[in-house]
Design a protein that fits this description.
With 421 residues, this protein is of the alpha+beta class. The chain contains 18 helices and ten strands. Helix 8 runs parallel beside helix 10. It has a six-stranded mixed beta sheet, with helices on both faces. A hairpin with a 3-residue loop joins strand 5 and strand 6. The chain has two domains: 159 residues, Cytidine Deaminase, domain 2 (3-Layer(aba) Sandwich), CATH 3.40.140; 234 residues, no CATH class. Helices cover 46% and strands 12% of the residues. It holds the Pfam family DUF4192. InterPro entries: DUF4192. It comes from Arthrobacter alpinus. This is DUF4192 domain-containing protein.
C-alpha cells in the first residue's frame, strides 16, 4: 500500500486519467488485480493492490473486509475509488463478472466510513465504469485501453521521466540474474572459507561487530563495488539467520542499534578464539575504520533496542502496535542497490538471503507484488527458505507493513500528490 507525498501535484479529471495513474504508481500494468485508492475530499491518498481472489476459492465478504480494513488504516481517507483489472472484456451488460466481490467491497468500505465514490472495470482491450449504464457515454464493451495510454496523466508522467515497465514477476528474475560469470566464479571460490565459521560463531559479540562493520563500510562506500572477497564475506554472513536479521535492522536503522537489540534479547554468544574478518582488513576486533560501539540496549530512546529490533523486522510493529521510529529510507534505498549487486554476483542457496532481504525492503515500502516476486526468487534459489516462506505468508493474509500504513513513516519514493476534479 502506497502513501502519496504532499509535494508536486498532478490533476486527475476523468476515468482514463485515474486508470493511467494506477500503473504509474505501481510501476507496472496490473494483471488480475483489485486496486483501491483512498480519498480525502478530492485528494488521492493510499493505493492498495491485491490479487483478485479465484472464483469460489475465497469468501468475498472476508476478502472485502480485509481490503477495507487495510485501507481504512489511513484515518484521513473518507472515500475510495476501485479499479478491477480482469483478463477478459466485460461484454454482457447483464453479467458483471465480479459482481459478488464488488457488492461486498461496497458494503465493507461503507462500514469503514469510506463509501465507494466510483469504480471501473479494465479488461483485456476495453475499460468502462462499473456503475454507468448509459450507452451514450459508456458504450459496450467500453472505451479502448489505448485511451488510458493517451491520457493527460500518462503524458504528464512521461514528461516527468516516469514510465510503466513489466510485471515484477517477470522483471525480478531478469534483474537478479548473474551479470558477470567470471566475478561470480571468484565469489563462489572465496565464500567457502567463510561459510562454516560465520554460521557457527557469527553471533559472537565481537564477531557480529566485525560483520556489521563490513556491511557498514560497503554501504558507506557504495556505489564503489566490493571486490569478490568482500562480496563473498557479505553473502556468507547472511547464512546465519541471526546475523541476517541483525544486518536487516542495521540497514534500516544503525549497526549500533542492531547490536544492542541482539544483546538485549540475549542472542549473542561467546566469541570463537579467532575472528573471521574480510581479506585486507585488520585482524582486530572490528573492521578497519568501522568500529561498531556496543551500547546497552536500554540506552536506545523509545523503549529499548530489543523491542525496536523486533519491530523493525516486522515492518514497524511492536506488540500489535507501531514502532515510533521510521526506518532510514536513504540507507535502505542504498542497501537495495548493494544487495542487487550481490544478488547479480552469485547463484544457488547462498543467494537466497540477499533476495529475501530485497523482498523485505519492498514489503516495508508497501509494494507487495514486488516483495512476493523476490520471495519467490529466494525460494527458487533455496527451496524451503524459511524467512521467504514466512514473509510470503504475511503477504497472502493481507498483512501490510505498519510503516507503509503510516504517512509519517512511509517510503518517500514518490514525490507527488494527486487530486480529482
Amino acid at each position: 500500500m502506497r502513501k502519496q507525498q504532499k509535494q508536486e501535484k498532478i490533476r486527475v479529471s476523468n476515468g482514463e486519467d485515474l486508470l493511467a495513474f494506477i500503473p504509474q504508481i505501481l510501476g507496472y500494468w496490473p494483471d488480475k488485480a483489485l486496486v483501491c485508492i483512498g480519498m480525502a475530499g478530492k485528494a488521492l491518498r493510499a493505493t492498495m493492490r491485491l490479487d483478485l481472489p479465484p472464483a469460489g476459492g475465497v469468501d468475498p465478504k472476508q476478502f472485502a473486509a480485509i481490503a477495507a480494513g487495510q485501507l481504512a488504516s489511513d484515518e484521513q481517507s473518507d472515500g475510495v475509488l476501485i479499479a478491477i483489472f480482469g483478463d477478459n472484456d466485460w461484454t454482457d451488460p447483464a453479467i458483471f463478472p465480479h459482481q459478488d466481490l464488488y457488492s461486498c467491497l461496497r458494503t465493507a468500505f461503507a462500514a469503514e466510513g469510506m463509501p465507494v465514490r466510483d469504480a471501473w472495470y479494465v479488461g483485456e482491450n476495453h475499460w468502462r465504469s462499473v456503475e454507468c449504464t448509459n450507452p451514450s457515454c459508456c458504450p459496450w464493451p467500453g472505451q479502448g485501453n489505448e485511451k488510458i495510454v493517451g491520457s493527460f496523466v500518462n503524458a504528464e508522467f512521461i514528461y516527468r521521466g516516469r514510465r510503466v515497465e513489466g510485471n515484477p514477476n517477470e522483471r525480478v528474475p531478469a534483474m537478479t540474474a548473474v551479470t558477470d560469470q567470471d566475478f561470480a566464479l571468484k565469489i563462489s571460490r572465496s565464500i567457502l572459507p567463510f561459510l562454516g565459521p560465520l554460521a557457527e560463531s557469527g553471533l559472537g559479540k565481537t564477531q557480529l561487530g566485525v560483520t556489521l562493520g563490513a556491511w557498514e563500510r560497503s554501504l558507506t562506500h557504495w556505489p564503489e563495488r566490493p571486490d569478490a572477497a568482500m562480496s563473498a564475506y557479505l553473502l556468507a554472513s547472511l547464512g546465519n539467520a541471526g546475523v541476517r536479521d541483525a544486518v536487516m535492522v542495521s540497514l534500516a536503522m544503525t549497526p549500533e542499534l542492531s547490536l544492542a537489540g541482539l544483546l538485549g534479547v540475549g542472542y549473542l554468544t561467546p566469541d570463537a578464539p579467532t575472528l573471521v574478518v574480510p581479506v585486507n582488513w585488520c585482524g582486530g576486533n572490528q573492521a578497519d575504520g568501522y568500529d561498531i560501539t556496543v551500547l546497552d540496549e536500554s540506552d536506545h530512546a523509545g523503549g529499548g533496542a530489543a523491542a525496536t529490533f523486533g519491530a523493525v523486522l516486522l515492518g514497524g510493529n511492536v506488540d500489535g502496535g507501531r514502532c515510533d521510529d521510521a526506518p532510514n529510507w536513504t540507507r535502505l534505498d542504498r542497501a537495495e542497490e548493494l544487495l542487487l549487486f550481490l544478488a547479480q554476483s552469485s547463484q544457488g542457496p547462498a543467494n537466497a538471503p540477499a533476495l529475501c532481504i530485497l523482498g523485505w525492503i519492498q514489503w516495508c515500502r508497501g509494494r507487495g507484488t514486488w516483495a512476493g516476486a523476490y520471495f519467490q526468487q529466494a525460494q527458487n534459489s533455496f527451496p524451503g527458505y524459511k524467512l521467504a516462506h514466512l514473509l510470503e505468508q504475511l503477504l497472502e493474509c493481507g498483512y501490510i507493513a505498519p510503516w507503509a500504513k503510516n504517512e509519517k513513516s512511509a517510503w518517500p519514493g514518490y514525490s507527488f500528490m494527486e487530486e480529482t476534479s
